[in-house]
Amino acid sequence: MRAPARSWARVLGNRVVARDTRWIELECPDVAAAASPGQFVMMGTGLSDVAAPFLPRPFSIGARDGDGRLGFLVREFGAGTRRLTRVEPGDELLILGPLGRPFHLSPDRAVLCLAGGVGLAPFLFVSAEARHEGCEVRIVYGERSGDRVFDLGLVREIAGVDPELRTDDGSLGARGLVIDDLDLGDRPQLLACGPDPMLRACVRLATEHDLPLQVSVEEHMGCGVGTCQGCVVLSATGEWIKSCTEGPVFDATELTWQT
Amino acid sequence: MADLSQRLFGVDFQSPVLLASGTCGYGEEYADLIPLERIGGLVTKAVSLEPRPGNPPHRVAETPGGMINAIGLQNVGLDRFRSEKLPWLSENLHDARVLINVVGHSVDDFGAVVSGLDGEEGFLGFEINVSCPNVADGTMFGTDKRALSDLVTRLRSLTERPLVVKLTPNVPDIDAYARICEEAGADGLSAINTFPGMLIDVERRRPVLGNVSGGVSGPAILPMGVFLTWRAAAAVSIPVIGIGGIRSGDDALQYILAGASLVQIGTALFVDPAAPVQVQEDIEGYLRRHGVERLSDLVGALSLPENLPERG
Ligand SMILES: Cc1cc2nc3c(=O)[nH]c(=O)nc-3n(C[C@H](O)[C@H](O)[C@H](O)COP(=O)(O)OP(=O)(O)OC[C@H]3O[C@@H](n4cnc5c(N)ncnc54)[C@H](O)[C@@H]3O)c2cc1C
Ligand SMILES: Cc1cc2nc3c(=O)[nH]c(=O)nc-3n(C[C@H](O)[C@H](O)[C@H](O)COP(=O)(O)O)c2cc1C
Ligand code: FES
Predict the structure, then answer these.
(1) Contact A177, A201 (CB under 8 A)
(2) What is the CA radius of gyration of chain A?
């Protein structure tokens, strides 16, 4: 893996793709050239201004192209993402990346991505790259309600597949959770990213069906590069390990899962 | 060309800018992003006798103008530090000066770490951390004059290397603590560590940090750091390292004018790893603009109003 770089990246585009959610494109050739699916960047506004986000925030790389462009799916959550979702073309953001361990795909199994909400972001990139290498990819994507569902045209354009949609309230797509009524007939490798309860459900599913599962976890981060030890998760052996450098992608068996 | 170097603790520091403990790991983690050999040096993450597991998450969160952390001094412990971390420092850093941040539950604990590292290569001296607010007994030595004096006296007897004591801001009379360290044989002081604080998630009605409380750092604490550095520096004749909220050359110069010989940058590294080099360049620009030949001429060069009222 290549060393991370620090660079100011120009905002090329920012469009609304669901309620409170933007697709933000940045010109960031160093990161684009080096990135692998599952990796993330720290995105911030630099030192001159202490308004949130003062500390940079982690975001999964959602897409990259050969022209040095990166795409991010950014959902407004608190003060930091409120500001980041309001950037305009021409603004500059300070980017550190690419960071973290990517997904590892075995070529002999189909890929099934289980995405909860904005956890869809890394799978856009996974799908684009894996399909390029001839892997079969399916994405099951869940949201609480239909108004939160991302522009499916954009998803198809980037990921190259139509996601199977689920909503908790059934207002769009099938009613239910991403793990409900799954076709596991081809014994796929499972990749999951989303809120904690969803990840735990995916772990139960993988155990039950004896399928390999990688998860991308979220924890508060300080540095993103392994110096502060702010981002820890509990390893299978009961130690706090850094999710920014040892993750954010883990094999599910590397972690302790509270049931 | 303005001269940023200073001779302190018997060696030359090529620049006054160091990386603060706990914010630069053991150096190696930032080697790709910060030209370590071009800055003054770094202070390692705290090293304790036994490995420490650290606190449950969340361990960090943003606060207005900074952050709060409760890492809980997670570290690999003396043995693994010596065998796994120190060799990298020894092989890779020659111009940058390294201080090892040391913590312990008791005088014996601190002593064992200092003795266990004293004969090794790859570092200049020790920064004794008596000021961590994020573990139960973290400020025990930093807020008890008798205990602090005993600790520094004992460590002084164990090493001839530079011994710097990192003070807590959490006392009403930092000047008295500064003097105690000097009298007990410390070679320098670092001021300051983080301020104790707490954040509450009102939706969940729960503390944000797994440890409930933590230490506040970043630009928000700059004025307190400058003030406490000024008070500590005025009380002693040993060098003081100014710490707290530095993110620009002007911030660093405030500490230097207040009496600091060196400064450390912590939280700002997370925001932009280019900060240390930028701060250095800003200081150089200031020296040129003001026709100051050597940085050391600025240390404590603060003009105070006449008839200064008693401070307290
Ligand atoms: C590896 C990784 C990849 C991510 N990818 C994406 C993505 O592609 N799209 C997206 O919309 N979001 C993503 N997130 C989550 C995103 O980083 C948070 O929503 C964001 O940090 C919240 O900041 P805030 O200031 O809006 O929230 P606030 O709640 O105001 O933030 C308060 C503090 O909590 C931290 N924080 C709160 N929630 C999270 C969280 N879920 N993860 C990390 N830190 C948090 C913030 O950094 C800040 O220090 C990712 C998180 C991680 C760890
Ligand atoms: C994440 C984090 C970890 C820290 N760990 C240590 C530590 O192990 N030992 C120590 O003496 N100080 C530690 N500190 C305190 C810093 O070294 C510094 O004194 C403080 O953060 C103020 O400087 P700043 O505002 O530039 O960050 C830590 C600070 C942070 C933010
Ligand atoms: S975010 Fe700092 S170590 Fe992971």
Answers:
(1) yes
(2) 17
Domains of chain B, by residue range, sit at: 6-55+72-196+215-298
What ipTM was estimated for this complex?
0.96
**Which residue from B minimizes the CA distance to A94?**
B272
Going by their DSSP bridges, the two strands B206-207 and B213-217 should be labelled as: unpaired
Q: How confident is the model at residue B105 (pLDDT cuts 50, 70, 90)?
A: very high
Q: What's the pLDDT tens digit per position in B22-40?
A: 999 999 999 999 999 999 9
pLDDT at B146 over 90: yes
Sign of the four-CA dihedral A43, A47, A53, A55: positive
Per-residue model confidence (pLDDT) at position B2? 81
**Terminal C-alpha separation, chain A:** 34
- Closest residue of chain A to B32, computed from CA coordinates: A3
Å from B279 to nearest chain A CA? Answer: 11
Ligand 1 center to residue A82 CA distance, Å?
11
**Active-site choice (B20, B47, B73, B132):** B132
Q: What is the rounded CA–CA span in Å between residue B251 and residue B256?
A: 9
Q: Is A59 in contact with A43 (CB distance < 8 Å)?
A: yes
Domains delineated in chain A: 5-99 (2.40.30.10)
List alpha helices for B260-299, DSSP H: 267-271, 275-289
The answer to whether B219 touches B63, Cβ cutoff 8 Å, is no
Tokens 């982690």 sit on residue:
A58
What sign does the CA torsion over B268, B274, B276, B278 have? Answer: negative
Residue B312: pLDDT above 80?
no
A245 contacts on B by Cβ (under 8 Å): 29
Q: Which CATH superfamily is domain B6-55+72-196+215-298 in?
A: Aldolase class I (3.20.20.70)
What are the structure tokens assigned to A98, written together?
A: 């690419």
Q: How confident is residue B160, by pLDDT bands cut at 50, 70 and 90?
A: very high
| C-alpha span between B281 and B4 (Å, rounded) | 10
Angle, CA B140 vertex, CA B135 and CA B145 arms, to 5°? 160
Share of chain B above pLDDT 90, in %: 93
Show the tokens assigned to A29. Answer: 């050739």
> Distance (Å, rounded) from C-alpha A28 to C-alpha A97?
10
Residue B137's pLDDT band, with cuts at 50, 70 and 90, is confident
Task: Name B99's Cβ contacts closer than 8 Å, sequence gap at least 6.
Answer: B18, B21, B41, B42, B43, B44, B123, B124, B125, B126, B127, B162, B164
Instruction: Classify B22 in phi/psi space as left (phi over 0), alpha (psi -120 to 50) or beta.
Output: left
Q: Which residue has the tokens 């075995």?
A: A106
